[in-house]
Design a protein that fits this description.
InterPro entries: DNA_S_mod_dnd_assoc_4 (IPR023983). This protein is mostly helical. 51% of the residues lie in helices and 3% in strands. The protein has one domain (5-154). It has helices at residues 13-19, 32-45, 65-70, 74-85, 96-121, 127-141; strands at residues 5-6, 63-64. It has a two-stranded antiparallel ribbon with strand order 1-2. Helix 2 packs across helix 5 (96-121) and helix 4 (74-85) crosses helix 5 (96-121). The longest helix is centred in the C-terminal third of the chain and has 26 residues, at 96-121. The chain is globular. The N and C termini lie far apart (53 Å).
Length: 156
């Protein structure tokens, strides 16, 4: 894998830092990788894909993709690429242009998810509790599908 790194939008850097558990914060995630994967999943769920604009150079610095590989999260980057482009060739690791496109897609969905989190966590003291409440509300909002099984399609 090339030296591609996952970047964080400058306006979301403080949020990302606060979501990672440290001596100064009680964030719900252990690593920046986990924050970005969760944010990308949230961005996909709400179809929110936002270009990065200006990125942060400092903390959190761009995250090497090797970190995603070592934590077992590289597959989400590839799956997002396939889903977005509908082109299986995007998972080719030999083509730099494909790797750049996969990275961009992941970053933009993560940025969209971080924007959602920014809104949801505004004014929250305990991010873990607020995220849990958000996820519970999301689960409860899903309307069950009460579709009747139609046997007529088997009749000729």
């Amino acid at each position: 894998m090339a030296a591609n790194r996952i970047k964080v939008a400058k306006d979301k850097a403080e949020l990302v830092k606060s979501l990672v558990a440290s001596k100064d914060t009680t964030g719900p995630f252990q690593t920046y990788v986990e924050v970005m994967v969760f944010a990308a999943a949230l961005g996909v769920r709400y179809k929110k894909c936002i270009p990065l604009g200006e990125t942060t150079k400092r903390e959190p610095s761009p995250i090497p993709q090797e970190n995603f590989v070592s934590l077992g999260h590289e597959l989400i980057i590839k799956l997002l690429g396939i889903n977005e482009t509908q082109d299986i060739e995007i998972i080719s690791s030999r083509e730099e242009e494909y790797e750049d496109k996969r990275t961009q897609i992941f970053e933009e969905y993560a940025n969209g998810g971080l924007e959602i989190l920014q809104t949801e966590l505004r004014g929250a003291v305990d991010y873990s509790e607020r995220i849990l409440l958000f996820l519970i509300a999301e689960k409860d909002n899903k309307e069950p599908i009460h579709e009747e099984f139609d046997l007529t399609r088997f009749l000729s």
